[in-house]
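Task card 7
Instruction: Convert sequence to structure tokens.
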Amino acid sequence: MVGPRPFRGLHHAGRTRQIFLAEAQSPRGAYVFLTVFGPESSLGLVRLYFEELVQGLAAAAPPVEALTGPALAEHFERDLNRNLAVLFGRA
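Output:
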């Protein structure tokens, strides 16, 4: 959040190139996109294509699978201790 409004993107107009930085949420997590464009494009056009890209990402993302088994393997602690001992030369 920037002030009372959520952060929607950052635009910087340089002498020869402009940049647009924005976050895109998808079912698989967040992505940050940096778009560099020249004077032949407008910020409005870049935002329009960015919104289409975000919608396309959300539609193309595979569904998040629910975990059905235990979060840790049955012998996780034993295997961890054995591997740490090998790593530090105590095995």
